[in-house]
Amino acid sequence: MIGSKEGDIYSFAIICAEVVTKSWPWNLNNRKEDATEILYMVKKGGHPYTRPELMTDGEMEVNPSLIHLIRDCWTERPSERPTITMVRSQMNSMDSRNGNLMDYIFNILEKYASTLEEEVSETSERKS
């Protein structure tokens, strides 16, 4: 399976959902489906889309813009997901006080993405 930038954005949203809810995605402990069944439903697509719940424990105040961003990042159609630049911009605008931390995290993500692109390119060239 080949990765994509859109897939990375989806994965980012899943991780953000874990942070926001302080729980595993899809709340496996309280579902009738097991992980294999949930994976099948996510891959199958269709409506209703299988996504983690974004209910917080009430202790943490979550910016509604972050919830909207997470939902945008796991939109069913990959072409409709925001780019990493758009995600970065939206997150920086949510709380400028945390800009340094966000810059650091996104710089790491960008370096990882460029390294991954180089590795994919090299692998493709070797196969040609």
Quick recap:
The protein has 5 helices and no strands. It has 128 residues and is mainly α.
Distance between the termini: 18 Å
CATH architecture: Orthogonal Bundle
Taking the sheet with the most strands, its summary is: none
CATH class: Mainly Alpha
Q: Which term fits the overall shape? A: globular
Structural class: mainly alpha
CATH topology: Transferase(Phosphotransferase), domain 1
Task: Supply the number of structural domains.
Answer: 1
CATH superfamily: Transferase(Phosphotransferase) domain 1
Low-confidence stretches: none
Average pLDDT works out at 77
User: What level of helicity do the residues show?
Assistant: 55-70%
User: What is the tally of beta strands?
Assistant: 0
Rg over C-alpha atoms, rounded to the nearest angstrom: 16 Å
Please write the string of helix (H) and strand (E) elements: HHHHH
Query: Which band does the percent of strand residues land in?
Result: under 5%
Counted by DSSP, the helix tally is 5
What's the SSE blueprint?
Blueprint: H1 5-21, H2 35-44, H3 64-73, H4 84-94, H5 99-127
Helix pairs in contact: 1-3, 3-4, 4-5
